[in-house]
Amino acid sequence: MLRVLFFGRFREELGCAELELVLDESSADLDSLQSKLVEEWGDKWSQVLMQNNVIRAVNQAVANENLSLFDGDEIAFFPPVTGG
Amino acid sequence: MAMKLPFFRRLQVASVSQPLNVVVQAEDFDVSVLQAQLLQGKAAEGAVATFTGYVRSSNANRNVHCLELEHYPGMTERSVLAILEECGQRWPVLSAGVMHRVGKLKPGDQIVWVGVSSSHREASFAACEFIMDYLKTRAPFWKKELGPEGDHWVDARKSDNERAERWQQQQ
């Protein structure tokens, strides 16, 4: 299973903080997972995840490039951070 | 040789075992308690620089009644600790700490505290500023402002990114 988390504005716009997906060929890497959510989950998902400022993290580290995903991985999608 | 050795050894110890402390909590904090924890009774080491951030009553011409701070539990602590570790590699830091609040806050509430102990003010000031600049651009926190005109997720500021990039050029 993959654990997928959404934060901040994304969480609110999607109405989803967390979901679990079975790891398969369509989610074997980060780009594929994002495309799957954009293409198969409806307009709301494509609007949020197609923005050009989407930050992606795998196992709590920001991923600047595509990464292979493995069973048990925790993936997160979130907008630019605004703490401090 | 006998005179030099203890000094040399202490520098080594400072560079590999700086106490670094990261706390994320909803509760308010006491800056004097945090500073005492940072020093651990070693005020004779030289210098401490601290920064305390407060919630604004208005931001970008919007009135703010209240602020909601969301974070990514686990990744937040990891990423702030990574910032402190990088800071410890750049400056002769003796200890460093970050306290960041989450949840619902009001204008005037304390939101963030950064403290750096070092032997000299130059390193303390620079390290403190570095931590704040990186915290604003790398740590997974998100602010939502609640005001008379409705709710509003705060946008990341270009000027914050530029401040953080400055440190990369100075590397």
Description:
The complex is a heterodimer of chains A (84) and B (171). Chain A is α+β, with helices and mostly antiparallel strands and 84 residues long. Helix content of chain A is 30%, strand content 24%. In chain A, α2 runs antiparallel to α3. The longest helix of chain A is centred in the middle third of the chain and has 11 residues, at 30-40. The radius of gyration of chain A is 12 Å and the shape is globular. Chain B is globular, with a radius of gyration of 18 Å. Chain B has five helices and ten strands. Chain B has helices at residues 4-16, 31-39, 75-90, 121-138, 158-169, and strands at residues 20-25, 47-54, 58-59, 62-63, 66-71, 93-101, 103-105, 110-118, 141-147, 150-153. Chain B is of the alpha+beta class and 171 residues long. Chains A and B meet through α1 and β4 of A and β5, α3, α4 and β9 of B.
Question: In order across it, which strands form the biggest sheet of chain B?
Answer: 1-6-8-2
Q: Termini distance of chain B? A: 33 Å
Q: What characteristic shape of chain B results from the CA principal axes? A: globular
Oligomerization: heterodimer
How much of the sequence of chain A is in beta strands?
Answer: 15-25%
Secondary-structure content class of chain A: alpha+beta
Strand content of chain B: 25-35%
Query: In total, how many beta strands of chain A?
Result: 5
Secondary-structure element sequence of chain A? EHEHHEEE
How many H/I helices of chain B? 5
Radius of gyration of chain A: 12 Å
| End-to-end C-alpha gap of chain A | 34 Å
Average residue-wise pLDDT of chain B: 88
The low-pLDDT segments of chain B are 1-16
- Integer average pLDDT of chain A: 95
Q: What is the number of E strands of chain B?
A: 10
